Amino acid sequence: MRTCRIAPSILSADFARLGEEVRDVVDAGADWIHFDVMDNHYVPNLTVGPLVLQAIRPHTSVPIDVHLMVDPVDEIIPAFLKAGADIITFHCEASRHIDRTLQLIRQGGAKAGLVFNPATPLSYLDYELDRIDVVLLMSVNPGFGGQSFIESTLEKTVAVREKLDRYKAETGREVMLEIDGGVKPENIARIAAAGADTFVAGSAVFGAGGKSGYADVISRMKAAVAALD
Ligand SMILES: O=C(CO)[C@@H](O)[C@H](O)COP(=O)(O)O
Ligand SMILES: [Co+2]
């Protein structure tokens, strides 16, 4: 059976009830919580930081996947590690020394991931796979929830899947492949067929109007992926 992790992005949650939203979406079947950090510098939007991560941490035991859309990145990583991040991903363009940033995250005890914008070349992966736990492909330009899925991401997903399968055959090590932006029950099967195993969904999940709506969307997403087997 193929792996399908659903990671709802709290960007589209009700921020006035964030702890409850996190609990509801996990009860509804979420595998990870996706935590979008934007700095109004690397991206034109401003969201949440380590204090908010620390506040939601006691509300769930599922992995919290911190997506850093910040530049510079290294200086803020220790605060997210301390606040309880399980996975920390950052953008290739936001780190001056990618290898050092990956090590900083892993030495702090979290899994490390590299994020590729729609136009970022995959060559950044060439020498770093040994230090990467997650490859995150953006399927929208970063900065906002609720955008449409960019179709060229599918071709890029296939290319990363081939690299990761080759790497696994050589080393036995599995690297996760996560897609972020515009993922919905209607397109998730095509994205999974291209080779993704982890799916961020913000507006599709939190736009579903409460706990039973969240459960409905998440189960439809999982069913669409399971139907590929
Ligand atoms: O990182 C980002 C946007 O920059 C994402 O995590 C979005 O928040 C996903 O939202 P939807 O596209 O699913 O609404
Ligand atoms: Co994100």
Can you describe this structure in just a few lines?
The chain is of the alpha/beta class and 229 residues long. It has a single domain (5-226), classed as TIM Barrel (Alpha-Beta Barrel), CATH 3.20.20.70.
Keywords:
8 helices, binds cobalt (II) ion, metal-binding, alpha/beta, EC 5.1.3.1, RibuloseP-bd_barrel, Ribulose-phosphate 3-epimerase, 18% strand, isomerase, 229 residues
SSE inventory with pairings:
Elements lengths: L4 E4 L9 H10 L5 E6 L11 H7 L7 E6 L7 H7 L3 E5 L6 H10 L3 E6 L17 E5 L14 H19 L4 E5 L7 H7 L3 E4 L1 H4 L4 H16 L3
Parallel strand pairs: 1-8, 2-3, 3-4, 4-5, 5-6, 6-7, 7-8
Helix pairs in contact: 2-3
Bound molecules: 5-O-phosphono-D-xylulose and cobalt (II) ion.
Q: What is the third-level CATH name, the topology?
A: TIM Barrel
CATH architecture: Alpha-Beta Barrel
The residue fraction in helices comes out at: 25-40%
- Number of alpha- plus pi-helical segments: 8
Low-confidence stretches: none
Q: Spell out the CATH superfamily.
A: Aldolase class I
Q: Beta-strand percentage?
A: 15-25%
The secondary-structure element order is EHEHEHEHEEHEHEHH
Biggest sheet, strands in spatial order?
1-8-7-6-5-4-3-2
Query: What number is the mean pLDDT?
Result: 98
Q: Which ligands, by name, code or SMILES, are bound?
A: 5-O-phosphono-D-xylulose, cobalt (II) ion
Number of strands: 8
Briefly, what CATH class? Answer: Alpha Beta
Total separate domains:
1
What's the overall geometry? globular
Q: What can be said about the biggest beta sheet?
A: 8 strands, parallel
Radius of gyration: 16 Å
* Secondary structure category: alpha/beta
- CA distance, first residue to last residue: 6 Å
